Amino acid sequence: MQAIEIQTFGPPEGLVLVDRPDPAPATGQVLVTPEAIGVGGVDAVIRRGTLGGYGFTTGFVPGAEVAGTVGAVGDGVDPSWVGRRVWAFTGTGGAYAEQAVADVADVVPLPDGLGGVDAVALGSSGPVAHFALAQAHLAAAESVLIRGAAGSIGIAAVQLARAAGAGTIAVTTSSPERGRRLRELGATEVLDRSGDGATELDVLLDVAAGPDLASWFDRLAPNGRMVVVGVVAGMPPADFGAGLLANFRRSLTFGTFSADTIPRADRNAVTAAQFAAVVRGDLSAVVHDVLPLADAAVAHRRMDAGEVFGRIVLVP
Questions:
Q1: Tens-place pLDDT, residues 182-205
Q2: Candidates 2.70.50.60, 3.40.50.720, 3.90.180.10, 2.60.40.10; CATH matching 2-123+285-315
Q3: What is the per-residue pLDDT for 70?
Q4: What long-range pairs does 190-193 form, CB within 8 A, spacing at least 24?
Q5: Segments of the chain assigned to CATH 3.40.50.720
């Protein structure tokens, strides 16, 4: 099969199309032939080498999710999965390929009427937004700011905050056109990336992080909550917690969120519910572009340039 490897960490040019042996499903796994492959922000973070301490090495195949058809199953897996269209979480990698394996516990059937492209545009991002807002205890009529809202997590969070009855739904983004599209999805205030004008926020959902993370503590109301779900702008400085302590008397809360902490059954239930919502028209999966697998480096260049609204999807 053909697959994309990270042959050098750093710029997108390190992503190279290669031939690799076809994978085989191990015990408890399924083999999926993808019709669509999601390109996520975490893929770019890994490719840049930002998470070098997590054991990623050259030759790594990035990508965390695919939608396609189950072609084979490993020992201990119900053979009735074969031939079914599914969304599958492949872990931290392995999805940028013509064949992918996933634990059967990380597989969700696709409902009739949902295409693979839409499935991977929402699949992992929607549950992250759902559980991160729950961790922040967002309540009806409260204000929320979604920092870095033009990505797939931010877009899902805007829609979910609207459905939850949030009062102010503020977003940061890089252009008036993106702001217009975010308003159509439910945002009530659009700010530039500096966030100037945002104050007294009950909840701040941060996809970006980066070197100025601590400055955002000043935007929170007393008892405000910040939850970081990504580091697409880079890691914060080691002393960012000093900014939290400087606001000690305002009883602020800071947390991080990873879907790794959610039981698979709970995550899959939310994923299935969100897929059904897309079919009904109650939730939108926003696709920036669909590119061939061989153009993975093009997709990453667009992400690095900040051009992407929603998600880029690769097709084999």
A1: 999 999 999 998 888 888 999 999
A2: 3.90.180.10
A3: 98
A4: 191/145
A5: 126-259
CATH fold group of domain 126-259: Rossmann fold (3.40.50)
Q: What is the average pLDDT across 217-234?
A: 94
CATH 3.90.180.10 positions along the chain are 2-123+285-315
Q: What is the dihedral of CA 137, 142, 147, 153, to 10 degrees?
A: 50
